[in-house]
Design goal:
alpha/beta, 7-stranded mixed sheet, 6 helices, 7 strands, globular, binds 5-O-phosphono-beta-D-ribofuranosylamine
Length: about 190
């Protein structure tokens, strides 16, 4: 990404709840924010995040995931139309193809609720608790064609208590996610 010259246009890709989307929107509304959320795309018609975008008057689009190629081509067209500089995946439950990443040609970030490279994939908190880990956390990383891989931009830890269960751990980690995602975006925008 070229050096910071005015606000960067961000597209957020979601599949569900949208709590990270909410935190990014909130951050982007700060007076001196370096980015603006221009577009929200969801592969799930019922994603709560679409309603959140609507409320904030952000252009949002459900794109049916009939197949990867179709979804990605339609997304690429929109990303171009809205001059998107950076994609943020926030609870987006599909893996983007190598071709999509190459065609978009600008950075793509993802947030994952573990201390990557540990606990890639689904059911993270359950696995972490089951393995009696002492720490967990959240990671923001660059997306490549492999699942939850790619360069780490920011990672933050949280201590796991003996009393923690999946639900309480998820809550703790989510709090960290909401804090580090905007920070990671700023780091990427200002350091590249
Ligand atoms: C978050 O835990 C994120 O790390 C993971 O999916 C969840 C999405 O939550 N990739 P939300 O939709 O942002 O509330």
């Amino acid at each position: 990404m070229e050096k910071y010259l005015g606000k960067k246009n961000i597209a957020v890709l979601i599949s569900g709840r949208g709590s990270n989307l909410t935190s990014l929107i909130k951050y982007s509304k700060r007076k001196k924010s370096l980015f603006e959320i221009k577009l929200v795309i969801s592969n799930n018609f019922n994603a709560k995040g679409l309603k959140i975008a609507n409320k904030s008057k952000i252009k949002n689009q459900y794109i049916k995931y009939s197949n990867k190629k179709n979804f990605e081509n339609r997304s690429l067209k929109l990303l171009k139309k809205y001059n998107i500089d950076l994609i943020c995946l926030a609870g987006f439950m599909r893996i983007l193809s190598k071709k999509f990443i190459k065609n978009f040609s600008k950075p793509i970030l993802n947030i994952h609720p573990s201390l990557l490279p540990k606990y890639k994939g689904l059911n993270t908190h359950y696995k972490v608790i089951k393995n009696r880990e002492k720490f967990s956390g959240a990671t923001v990383h660059i997306v490549n064609e492999k699942l939850d891989a790619g360069k780490i931009i920011i990672q933050e830890k949280v201590r796991i208590l003996k009393s923690d269960i999946v639900k309480t751990l998820e809550k703790k980690v989510l709090k960290i996610e909401h804090k580090i995602y905007p920070k990671a975006i700023i780091k990427l925008i200002t350091n590249y």
